[in-house]
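User: Can you fold this complex?
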Amino acid sequence: MSTLLLLSNSTSPGRPYLAHARDWIAEAVGDARRVAFVPYAAVTFAYDDYVARVREALDGLRLEIVGVHASADPAGVVAGADAVFVGGGNTFHLLREAYRHGLLDAIRQRVADGAPYVGWSAGSNLACPSVRTTNDMPIVEPPSLDALGLVPVQINPHYTDAHPPGHQGETRAQRLAEFVAANPESPVVGLPEGTAVRVADGRAGLLGEGAARVFDPQSPEGREAAPGEAEALFVR
Amino acid sequence: MSTLLLLSNSTSPGRPYLAHARDWIAEAVGDARRVAFVPYAAVTFAYDDYVARVREALDGLRLEIVGVHASADPAGVVAGADAVFVGGGNTFHLLREAYRHGLLDAIRQRVADGAPYVGWSAGSNLACPSVRTTNDMPIVEPPSLDALGLVPVQINPHYTDAHPPGHQGETRAQRLAEFVAANPESPVVGLPEGTAVRVADGRAGLLGEGAARVFDPQSPEGREAAPGEAEALFVR
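Assistant: Here's the predicted assembly.
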């Protein structure tokens, strides 16, 4: 199994796009040069612009970043790449297009063969068994909510316990408590912004400064991940 | 077509459950006495408790409120009721169970035959063509995201432009702009908490004090609903 780097988010306050993750990404890709970038989470901006933004953010890492959307055979671009990057945006749009272009099998195969996978936000949701812990609005309907399953546990990106004052809608913790009640067999790791999980060589660890939170039937309201717990959750 | 009352939310700050909507509900039900209540949006509390809460909130309106879950034939309870109420909670859980128990056709038929429909939060999402403008987490997977279609337009309940400071996740307006980009043919009405839409006798109007917002290709960032616009949107 190759290296997986799953980021909560792309942008830390006051810093350029992906800047907080640049060193982590460099480490994850290692010798890889040709990157298949999946931009299908973009909805309100152009795929070409998305590719340009990622190229600019990672300039200097000597990566050749190719948007899979520009090919008549997106799955072939994945198959021929050294690494796969999947960017954030709307998770449902990403998943629908990934199914449409046969990317799920292509990415699973390429990662099984050793290619590093880097995802952020919706791209981290995509790496999970399903996208059922996304925060995004289901603006389009994919054929299924099942996703890549590169890791055995669900991630909630952009995890926060902040909530607009007076607002009566569910808090994030309430939403995740509902997930746990409906799916007691499926723990969830809430990754605060600025954090990530790295899985490689049968080990897993948390990166960044915020504390990841674990939601499961013993802690439906969430608890801080214990030392070593990420490994128990992400490597099975 | 019967009277539809679609509420943004169940609870206004500092007031008991459904108190802000009690007079609207009384008006909507009219002479109806036997209410089929659909509690399937509840995930972390019992359906029986949900029925008890609604009965208590509407005590004095002389309604006989029956939870459809308690019957071996939930669709039959709908068919035999004078009115249908659908409560809030998790929209995906509500929709999955509604499909499982054959409630979509049963509710559509009963409403077409004249029964008032009252929904709040997830229950308002259910009245739309699809649930793709819910704020809820997709904790379970319904067979489809298509819903009742009692109204021709999408509602976003609990509409707010508030956002936790510093949080990098999408704002509600950004999520709805994505919906409009992906679905230009499908306008969305954002109902702030404390508001509702009432549809009856070929007329539609907004209730409550907050201004509804309309999201469509001309206003992907949203605009305040113009006078009479609700009628143009909800009655076709």
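The longest strand of chain A covers residues 154-159. DSSP finds eight helices and eleven strands in chain A.
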